[in-house]
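Bug #77: duplicate submission created two jobs. Keeping one. Sequence:
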Amino acid sequence: MFLKGVLVYLRALEPEDLSFVYEVENDRSLWEMSNTVTPYSKWILKNYLENSHQDIYEAKQLRLAIVKNNSDRLLGLVDLFDFDPKNNRVGLGIVIKNLDDRNAGIGSEAVKLLIDYAFETLHIHQIYVNVTVTNSASIKLFSKFGFQLVGVKKQWNRVGSTYADEALYQLINPLNED
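Kept job's structure:
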């Protein structure tokens, strides 16, 4: 186990995660959050999993599986992306696949584990998240950890035939604040 909490642990992706990743990446209801516009093939995702051993400095991202303690059931994925080692910042994203597993503390614990890892192990200065302004669950989740709204990108994402505003939140590492 990589990072362990009370409810879940985070671990590296494994080849046997292919079906789960395929379902998440091709779930059209999640595309708005990930800015995806086309489906992924199993072949592409298999190649991605085969190369997921690269560290964050090489790949500029880190995707981990969120797994339920004591059952090893895969619940979701959490990512550090757009890693910028010069400016010491990284984006964070999370998805919990099944609606029944949401609002149960799983996402909170996964985010907390990843924030601690980013700040304490990678010595990241700041983490940012992009959230559609109508996504109250994500806003509540990230605000809980001290992420602060720093701006709103007007009509940033096309959703169907309309455009949605996207908020930018950031969290400065309290160990590095001047």
